[in-house]
Structure formats: C-alpha cells, structure tokens
C-alpha cells in the first residue's frame, strides 16, 4: 500500500488554513477585481505567479505588480486590486 505525502492542487481556493493564518490561490481574468477589504491584526502577502495586478492600499497608494513580485503589508490597511491581464496570485494572511 502506497501513501501519498504530498498533494497537487490546481484551480483556485483555500490551500491551507489554521490558527496561524491562511493561504489561498486566486485566479482573476483580465479586468477581474478583488474588492476593497482589510485583515486587522494580521500581516498580508500577495504573491503574483502569473500576469500583472494593479493594487491600491488605503485608497491612495498604488502598486503595479508583475509575475514574480510579492507585496507585503500590515492587514490593518485596506486592499483592493484589478487584474491588468489574466492573473494567478497566492494570497497569504498571517496572524500576528
């Protein structure tokens, strides 16, 4: 009998969650949006694996993220984003 140690995930959705935080795969088509929200008491990492993502923090600070970029910020700040083209991101939220 063979038991798998690892799992291969595809598509989007929650990858991992526990008392320390969560990891989620997010796929957006060009023009797709992540609505304005925040994560008080947490740290946030947005890792772009494919495509380009335009991010706005606290309604004013703009970041153009490209494949390979990671944006890190305190979750008390509000976050919104729009896909400049088809995008795959990893959204990581860490409890602090």
- Summarize the helix and strand pattern as letters: EEEEEEEEE
Number of strands: 9
Instruction: Report the structural category.
Output: mainly beta
Distance between the termini: 41 Å
User: Roughly what fraction of the amino acids lie in strands?
Assistant: over 45%
Gross morphology is globular
Q: What do you see in this structure?
A:
- The structure is a single chain.
- This protein is an all-beta fold.
- The chain is 0% helix and 61% strand.
- It contains no helices and nine strands.
- The protein has strands spanning 13-18, 21-28, 33-37, 42-50, 52-57, 61-66, 70-74, 79-83, 87-95.
- The strands form two sheets. The chain has a five-stranded antiparallel beta sheet, with no helix packed on it. It has a four-stranded antiparallel beta sheet with strand order 3-8-5-6, with no helix packed on it.
- The radius of gyration is 14 Å and the shape is globular.
- The protein starts with 12 loop residues before the first strand and ends with a strand.
- The mean pLDDT is 94.
Outline:
The protein is mostly beta strands and 96 residues long. It has strands at residues 13-18, 21-28, 33-37, 42-50, 52-57, 61-66, 70-74, 79-83, 87-95.
Spell out the key features of this protein.
single chain; four-stranded antiparallel β-sheet; 9 strands
Please describe the topology of this protein.
Layout: E1 13-18, E2 21-28, E3 33-37, E4 42-50, E5 52-57, E6 61-66, E7 70-74, E8 79-83, E9 87-95
